[in-house]
Inverse folding.
């Protein structure tokens, strides 16, 4: 999938699953990270498209979150969830992803081909299906979205203040 389709499908799935705008934004932005494999000089759709490390890291981060109630662990898990959703979307393509080992031949469901109408139809189908589920869950209601937007703004302010405090402490130390 192209980047914008990865972001849209990841956002739809994550928001439907969580109702959390911050987690959704983190996952959507992170959903393009597996395609940066060329930066580290490895063949496309090998190591960065192997799903199992993402599953393990997500599991560990949610375990940490459940034990120590760490928001950092919670939102970090969505970085890797975005990557995993990218891999899952690519598994729907003709090109597929490696399932046995990172260097084994990829496996794909052949539902779409990159940059063909089938890609846009597949992405739109995912977004619509999860959008309907989100609507049925009530997390697309204006009242819910207003509360969630306020909470997201508070999270952004908290994050900004934390970064400023860390930078100030670093300059002073």
């Amino acid at each position: 999938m192209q980047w914008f389709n990865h972001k849209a499908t990841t956002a739809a799935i994550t928001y439907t699953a969580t109702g959390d705008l911050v987690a959704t934004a983190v996952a959507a932005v992170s959903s393009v990270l597996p395609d940066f494999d060329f930066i580290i000089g490895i063949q496309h759709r090998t190591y960065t498209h192997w799903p199992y490390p993402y599953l393990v890291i997500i599991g560990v981060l949610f375990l940490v979150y459940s034990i120590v109630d760490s928001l950092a662990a919670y939102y970090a898990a969505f970085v890797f969830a975005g990557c995993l959703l990218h891999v899952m979307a690519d598994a729907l393509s003709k090109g597929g992803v490696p399932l046995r080992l990172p260097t084994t031949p990829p496996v794909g469901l052949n539902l779409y081909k990159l940059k063909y109408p089938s890609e846009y139809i597949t992405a739109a189908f995912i977004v619509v299906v999860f959008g309907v589920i989100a609507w049925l869950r009530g997390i697309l209601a204006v009242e819910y979205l207003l509360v969630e937007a306020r909470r997201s703004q508070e999270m952004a302010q908290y994050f900004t203040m934390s970064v400023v405090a860390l930078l100030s402490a670093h300059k002073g130390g």
Summary: The mean pLDDT is 95. The chain has six helices and two strands. The chain has two domains: 3-140, 141-173. The helical segments are 3-18, 21-30, 51-68, 71-91, 117-137, 142-172.
